[in-house]
């Protein structure tokens, strides 16, 4: 979105695609989210494009079922493409 710093957008993508949600849910207090949250560890500008960035996000392996590419794909891509805060 216009006016949102790239670092803030990267952090929002990492949170939304791992442990973040806009809604308070009862399970929030059951576990330490720090162990499971995604982390945006690098952002770089797209050369020749104004306000376009590539964000690198790392996820803990515990978020995904072993050997399930479908689980990984829907967890990451589905959440990121459905994230209305980004354009």
From TrEMBL:
<dbReference type="InterPro" id="IPR036422">
    <property type="entry name" value="RuBisCO_lsu_N_sf"/>
</dbReference>
<protein>
    <recommendedName>
        <fullName>Ribulose bisphosphate carboxylase large chain</fullName>
        <ecNumber>4.1.1.39</ecNumber>
    </recommendedName>
</protein>
<dbReference type="GO" id="GO:0019253">
    <property type="term" value="P:reductive pentose-phosphate cycle"/>
</dbReference>
<dbReference type="GO" id="GO:0009536">
    <property type="term" value="C:plastid"/>
</dbReference>
<keyword id="KW-0601">Photorespiration</keyword>
<keyword id="KW-0560">Oxidoreductase</keyword>
<feature type="domain" description="Ribulose bisphosphate carboxylase large subunit ferrodoxin-like N-terminal">
    <location>
        <begin position="2"/>
        <end position="86"/>
    </location>
</feature>
<keyword id="KW-0456">Lyase</keyword>
<keyword id="KW-0934">Plastid</keyword>
<keyword id="KW-0120">Carbon dioxide fixation</keyword>
<dbReference type="Pfam" id="PF02788">
    <property type="entry name" value="RuBisCO_large_N"/>
</dbReference>
<keyword id="KW-0113">Calvin cycle</keyword>
<dbReference type="GO" id="GO:0004497">
    <property type="term" value="F:monooxygenase activity"/>
</dbReference>
<keyword id="KW-0488">Methylation</keyword>
<dbReference type="GO" id="GO:0016984">
    <property type="term" value="F:ribulose-bisphosphate carboxylase activity"/>
</dbReference>
<dbReference type="InterPro" id="IPR033966">
    <property type="entry name" value="RuBisCO"/>
</dbReference>
<dbReference type="GO" id="GO:0009853">
    <property type="term" value="P:photorespiration"/>
</dbReference>
<keyword id="KW-0503">Monooxygenase</keyword>
<comment type="similarity">
    <text>Belongs to the RuBisCO large chain family. Type I subfamily.</text>
</comment>
<dbReference type="InterPro" id="IPR017443">
    <property type="entry name" value="RuBisCO_lsu_fd_N"/>
</dbReference>
<keyword id="KW-0150">Chloroplast</keyword>
